[in-house]
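Sequence design from tokenized structure. All designs in this work follow the same two-part layout: the structure record, then the generated sequence. An example of the structure record is given first.
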């Protein structure tokens, strides 16, 4: 079993280029199925969730080529409509293939998706919306058999909660539906607008008249395109947290500051200087010890992102002050807390609320990552801790972070995988 060995309390200083966004590339790769043509996608992060997505695309009959961080998908010869259970279980975002297969080949047979265990992750909104578009869905023993004989029909769909995945599935499903689909109360995450930009560049007609609404006029066919994935805002926040616990000075290239608008003030209030006037980049300079007396409530975008909760909590563990986290998106997203306690943190959890009393020092020990962002939190804490931290459960990190240890090593961390 591999482990990350971090010798903490070293100052991070230097430059890191932020990878392309995991939560953009996954739905965009799935959506490329709808084009039945060649799509050239730049700035793809080389992470295991992308590998899983490519396995699914290959299984369905797509040709895949690489050129550095560019992936070329050719979906002309799709020959299947089913996805093996094992691939579906590897990640939550595999559910987006439901809308993509329906839009592309008119039917799909897939099992329920897996992904990080963050509490119950139902797909009722996906199913309900797709049914409203006219999809026939038979569900039994965890298998969904879906067909749209006669095609999907545009309609008005209002989501009961702005779910990211349901929004993506419904956008992809409706780009070739007959007539007009109006989606309201949709998720507004930047990754959604990246998907919309990709589909429009493939010939889709998607308009965004105002906050939380999309109007999709169905078109007969899409065509191939070339697209560049937006930067990964959560990777950026992870490195900012790492800087904050190491008296760091990091220059992060490939950052869209508006995408982390709810997070930057948190670092500023913690005493960090965040320079954002540099085009597509950001510099963070941390104080000797961050101070933190704050309430952080995770919310749908543009609120504070749930994916940033764990790395920012790791930062708050070492800060001067008390912070309160309220996790409003997922019911079980504090699995990193038990591991942070092993490192000497002072955190109390009651339901969706976690109270963190900052301590002066954490000290290294063996910890286990249990989900992707929790893993990132342990890396941040390990970098700030005295002594040696050994982190197991690295498959979680590899799902979402490209070159994490190389990036950190290049700015002065002592971190290696054994
Ligand atoms: N929900 C339902 N029913 C549904 C869909 C969602 O009850 O049909 C609930 C979920 O259980 C959850 C909440 O709605 O409590 C939000 O879920 P959402 O559908 O928005 O999340 P997701 O699409 O499953 C994506 C990201 C997550 C990120 C969330 C929230 C991808 C591949 N995943 O998940 O990313 O936390 O949106 O922003 O885009 C990560 O990157 O570590 C990660 C988990």
């Amino acid at each position: 079993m591999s482990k990350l060995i971090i010798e903490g309390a070293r100052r991070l200083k230097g430059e890191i280029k932020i990878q392309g966004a995991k939560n953009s590339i996954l739905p965009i790769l799935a959506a490329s199925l709808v084009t039945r043509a060649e799509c050239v996608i730049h700035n793809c992060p080389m992470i295991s969730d992308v590998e899983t997505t490519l396995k699914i695309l290959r299984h369905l009959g797509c040709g895949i080529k690489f050129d550095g961080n560019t992936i070329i998908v050719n979906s002309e010869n799709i020959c299947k409509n089913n996805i093996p259970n094992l691939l579906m279980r590897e990640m939550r975002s595999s559910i987006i293939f439901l809308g993509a297969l329906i839009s592309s080949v008119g039917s799909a047979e897939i099992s329920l998706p897996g992904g990080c265990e963050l509490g119950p992750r139902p797909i009722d909104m996906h199913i309900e919306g797709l049914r409203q578009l006219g999809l026939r869905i038979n569900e039994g023993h965890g298998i969904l058999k879906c067909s749209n004989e006669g095609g999907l029909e545009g309609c008005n769909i209002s989501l009961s909660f702005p779910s990211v995945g349901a929004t993506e599935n419904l956008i992809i499903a409706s780009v070739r539906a007959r007539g007009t689909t109006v989606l309201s109360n949709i998720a507004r995450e930047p990754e959604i607008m990246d998907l919309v930009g990709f589909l429009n560049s493939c010939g889709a007609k998607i308009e965004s008249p105002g906050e939380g609404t999309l109007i999709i006029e169905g078109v007969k066919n899409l065509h191939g395109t070339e697209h560049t994935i937006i930067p990964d805002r959560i990777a950026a926040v992870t490195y900012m947290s790492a800087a904050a616990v190491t008296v760091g000075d990091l220059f992060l290239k490939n950052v869209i500051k508006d995408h982390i608008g709810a997070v930057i003030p948190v670092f500023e209030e913690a005493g960090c200087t965040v320079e954002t006037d540099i085009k597509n980049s950001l510099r963070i300079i941390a104080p000797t010890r961050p101070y933190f007396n704050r309430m952080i409530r995770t919310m749908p975008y543009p609120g504070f992102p749930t994916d940033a909760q764990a790395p920012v909590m790791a930062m708050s563990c070492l800060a001067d002050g008390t912070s309160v986290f309220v996790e409003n998106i997922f019911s079980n997203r504090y699995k990193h807390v038990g591991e942070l306690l092993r490192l000497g943190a002072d955190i109390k959890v009651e339901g969706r609320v976690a109270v963190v009393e900052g301590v002066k020092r954490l000290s290294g020990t063996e910890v286990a990552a249990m989900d992707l962002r929790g893993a990132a939190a342990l890396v941040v804490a390990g970098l700030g801790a005295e002594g040696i931290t050994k982190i197991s459960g690295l498959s979680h990190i590899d799902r979402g972070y490209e070159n994490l240890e190389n990036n950190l090593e290049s700015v002065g961390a002592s971190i290696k995988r054994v």
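The longest helix spans residues 48-60. We note this feature because it recurs in several other targets discussed in the main text.
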